[in-house]
Amino acid sequence: MVFQSLAEKLQSALDKLKGKGKLTEKDVKAALREVKMALLEADVNFKVVKDFVKKIQERAVGHEVMESLTPGQQVIKIVNDELTQLMGGTQSKLTVASKPPTVVMLVGLQGAGKTTTCGKLARVLEKQGRRPLLVAADIYRPAAIKQLQVLGERLDIPVFSMGDQTNPIDIAKGALSYAESHGRDYLIIDTAGRLHINEELMNELKEIKAAVKPHEILLVVDAMTGQDAVNVAEKFDEALGIDGVILTKLDGDARGGAALSIRAVTGKPIKFVGMGEKLDALEPFHPDRMASRILGMGDVLSLIEKAQQSIDLKKAQELERKLKKQEFTLEDFLEQMKQVRNMGPLDQLLGMIPGMGKVKHLKNLQVDEKALDHIEAIINSMTIEERRNPDIINGSRRRRIARGSGTSVQEVNRVLKQFNQLRKMMKQLNDMQKGGKFGRFPFF
């Protein structure tokens, strides 16, 4: 889960304050020492940690906490507030040009995921009803242009290219003219990166900036590089002037130092975060929601947004009807599993549920996505009749299904057993809620 190591340590330190009826200054200082160590181990900038802890201590030993009926909870609220402010306070959205197209220029070092992020950003904008154009201006990295074109094909979003023999400045200018004449309201320019910051790279980026006057210059950095990501952000901002940051691979970073340091050190907001490899795994960055997740309070708003984007309301209503009439089949089971998986990795979804991170057997949960693939393969290997009436699946049918899905009879038996248990649970829920209504959030 995101920030898992940091989250566990912070929550552990603050939990010690919860059980105390009255807090002393000594109690607060002891907890904040643990908070300080947790942040430093997460590779958060030392000065940022020092200022952060100082602010909390000043507020936590004041009248509002010491005289409170729930002092421990008051301290946690203060930490949540300060953590939110540390990461920017509120969501920072993309600037929109008064006259289209809005020009967005993505910059960064090689290996940060810049080209893929161009595609992901285009996908985000398209979902908002925009008409983005991707621009292949990286003429140096082998296959960079082809990679962007493949992404464009997968997303059904046009890619402007003039090959690898044309000057990137001319490519950017040509793309701007094309966007204006073809009604494209966003221009996303994929620029060249280097293995390190050098004068040649910066000069080229400055020339592109002067030629097309981007409304947004977004620096793409790899969250897993920790403090180096912050250093890169500082240098790019000094040389080029950036408007914000996109942190990639945040789902793979259990520490989180870059996310907690970048805004405080550079003054530049994190606008998006990459939360996986899929092309829809780029999310707007909400400091308040991220602070809440780090402190184990969940992120219900993001969970609801994911559900709204991924779940077919008509299918959910049909499921409700089937549940009430005891008509839930393996076809429905498969459909619900697909819809929930479309929302993202299951361990991330669990991390958005308040208090779920503190449930012991779920803390180190590793969701085996391959096991879910096997369930899909098994159900897909059944006939329509078998999916709708699993009671007819005898021994020979189970062997055939196992062969067809590339699994074992034991796995087929396990899926059928799980489904029958689920059906019984659904019946019990239905009996308990007779006269009421099932919520329209899918579950399985």
Helix-strand blueprint:
Blueprint: H1 4-18, H2 25-41, H3 46-60, H4 63-66, H5 71-86, E1 102-107, H6 114-127, E2 132-136, H7 144-155, E3 159-160, H8 168-181, E4 186-190, H9 199-212, E5 216-222, H10 227-239, E6 244-248, H11 257-266, E7 270-274, E8 282-284, H12 287-294, H13 300-310, H14 313-324, H15 330-342, H16 346-351, H17 360-363, H18 369-380, H19 384-388, H20 395-405, H21 409-432
Parallel strand pairs: 1-4, 1-5, 2-3, 2-4, 5-6, 6-7
Antiparallel strand pairs: 7-8
Helix pairs in contact: 1-2, 1-5, 2-3, 3-5, 5-12, 6-7, 8-9, 10-11, 15-18, 18-20, 20-21
Keywords: Coiled coil, Cytoplasm, GTP-binding, Hydrolase, Nucleotide-binding, Ribonucleoprotein, RNA-binding, Signal recognition particle
Coiled coil: 306-336
EC number: 3.6.5.4
Description of the molecule:
The chain starts with a helix and ends in a 12-residue tail after the last helix. With 444 residues, it is of the alpha/beta class. Helix 5 (71-86) packs across helix 12 (287-294), helix 8 (168-181) packs parallel to helix 9 (199-212) and helix 15 runs antiparallel to helix 18 (369-380). Mean pLDDT is 80; it is low at 358-366 and 435-444. The radius of gyration is 26 Å and the shape is flat. The protein is built from 21 helices and eight strands. The protein has three domains: 4-86, Up-down Bundle (Four Helix Bundle (Hemerythrin (Met), subunit A)), CATH 1.20.120.140; 102-297, Rossmann fold, CATH 3.40.50.300; 303-432, Signal recognition particle, SRP54 subunit, M-domain (434 Repressor (Amino-terminal Domain), Orthogonal Bundle), CATH 1.10.260. Strand 5 (216-222), helix 10 and strand 6 form a beta-alpha-beta unit. Strands 3-2-4-1-5-6-7-8 form an eight-stranded mixed sheet, sandwiched between helices. This is Signal recognition particle protein. Its EC number is 3.6.5.4.
